[in-house]
């Protein structure tokens, strides 16, 4: 298991001694959960820590939880997004057996202080049972099971860009919920006209770039990929009406992608939680070339302070800046 600050707090409080089988919800990326414990993960990080193509029967990687492995208690590692926290607990209130004890742990600067004051439908009032390592540990109990309708948490909205409407779908925790973020808008404004053929949209989020490309470029096939189950689920809804053949793929970088492409377009992630994290995209850039067809190209938008152009130059002979403003840089590599 991960020995990050939240995990160390759980160990110090001795909660594992009281419950033989835990459900770990949204655990740290490097946490390997073994029987009799089980886990529900929202991100595909763990695929980089296991033998290729394997998942333990006790591990779920999904936007929607199904209670299939019995547990005595649950531990929720609190995400920083408030709507995502509500989304997770609403599903637990529907799926967990009545009177299941639920622990909630998170860093002080990640929102747990304000979360401790919340009333959570179906659960008893939260109680603080531990603190340390700049974290807090709360506990509650499921006292009333709740109905859960997944469609009520799926937000569909028409986003206006250059006087056209684009119907997008969002789930809690998906980047850019309910809007077109400035980086993506800048990217679409300067998207090369030659993007065509077999295209990969890495870090697809809600699927806005994939949807736009299918409307405005001559594509043979589109793959939209993300390590977030919330993103891939939302993107599948966004792309459902598209005519071009497409696939939505859950993958941590290229871990679950073996195909090659004519173009790879990306607005790549660079943060995990509150801390800046370059690992995912650095690894992705190092593997780009082997996933391009002959003559294939990469086009990327990113915050201008990020080191991606330098990393691209280490792998590609030709790297150029297509556009730049005071916040973002668009880079082409071939």
UniProtKB/TrEMBL annotation:
<keyword id="KW-0698">rRNA processing</keyword>
<dbReference type="InterPro" id="IPR046977">
    <property type="entry name" value="RsmC/RlmG"/>
</dbReference>
<dbReference type="InterPro" id="IPR013675">
    <property type="entry name" value="Mtase_sm_N"/>
</dbReference>
<keyword id="KW-0963">Cytoplasm</keyword>
<keyword id="KW-0489">Methyltransferase</keyword>
<protein>
    <submittedName>
        <fullName>Uncharacterized protein</fullName>
    </submittedName>
</protein>
<dbReference type="Pfam" id="PF08468">
    <property type="entry name" value="MTS_N"/>
</dbReference>
<dbReference type="InterPro" id="IPR029063">
    <property type="entry name" value="SAM-dependent_MTases_sf"/>
</dbReference>
<keyword id="KW-0949">S-adenosyl-L-methionine</keyword>
<dbReference type="InterPro" id="IPR007848">
    <property type="entry name" value="Small_mtfrase_dom"/>
</dbReference>
<dbReference type="GO" id="GO:0008990">
    <property type="term" value="F:rRNA (guanine-N2-)-methyltransferase activity"/>
</dbReference>
<dbReference type="InterPro" id="IPR002052">
    <property type="entry name" value="DNA_methylase_N6_adenine_CS"/>
</dbReference>
<feature type="domain" description="Methyltransferase small">
    <location>
        <begin position="169"/>
        <end position="331"/>
    </location>
</feature>
<dbReference type="Pfam" id="PF05175">
    <property type="entry name" value="MTS"/>
</dbReference>
<dbReference type="GO" id="GO:0003676">
    <property type="term" value="F:nucleic acid binding"/>
</dbReference>
<keyword id="KW-0808">Transferase</keyword>
<feature type="domain" description="Methyltransferase small N-terminal">
    <location>
        <begin position="14"/>
        <end position="155"/>
    </location>
</feature>
């Amino acid at each position: 298991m991960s020995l990050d600050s939240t995990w160390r707090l759980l160990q110090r409080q001795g909660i594992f001694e009281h419950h033989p089988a835990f459900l770990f919800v949204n655990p740290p990326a490097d946490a390997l959960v073994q029987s009799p414990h089980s886990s529900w993960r929202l991100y595909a990080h763990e695929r980089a820590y296991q033998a290729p193509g394997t998942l333990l029967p006790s591990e779920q990687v999904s936007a929607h939880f199904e209670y299939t492995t019995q547990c005595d208690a649950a531990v929720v590692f609190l995400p920083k997004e408030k709507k995502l926290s509500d989304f997770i607990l609403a599903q637990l209130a529907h799926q967990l057996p009545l009177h299941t004890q639920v622990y909630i742990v998170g860093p002080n600067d990640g929102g747990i202080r304000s979360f401790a004051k919340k009333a959570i439908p179906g659960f008893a009032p939260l109680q603080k049972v531990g603190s340390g390592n700049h974290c807090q540990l709360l506990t509650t109990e499921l006292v009333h099971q709740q109905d859960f309708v997944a469609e009520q948490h799926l937000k569909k909205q028409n986003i206006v860009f250059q006087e056209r409407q684009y119907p997008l779908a969002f789930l809690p925790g998906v980047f850019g919920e309910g809007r077109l973020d400035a980086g993506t808008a800048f990217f679409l404004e300067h998207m090369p006209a030659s993007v065509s053929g077999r295209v990969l949209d890495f870090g697809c989020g809600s699927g806005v770039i994939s949807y736009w490309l299918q409307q405005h470029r001559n594509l043979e096939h589109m793959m939209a990929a993300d390590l977030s189950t919330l993103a891939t689920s939302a993107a599948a809804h966004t792309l459902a009406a598209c005519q071009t053949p497409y696939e939505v793929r859950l993958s941590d970088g290229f871990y679950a992608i073996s195909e090659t492409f004519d173009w790879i377009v990306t607005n790549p992630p660079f943060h995990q939680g509150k801390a800046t994290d370059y690992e995912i995209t650095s690894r992705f850039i190092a593997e780009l070339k082997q996933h391009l067809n002959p003559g294939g190209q990469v086009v990327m938008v990113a915050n201008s302070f990020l080191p991606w152009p330098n990393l691209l130059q280490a792998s590609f002979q030709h790297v150029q800046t297509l556009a730049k403003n005071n916040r973002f840089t668009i880079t082409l590599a071939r």
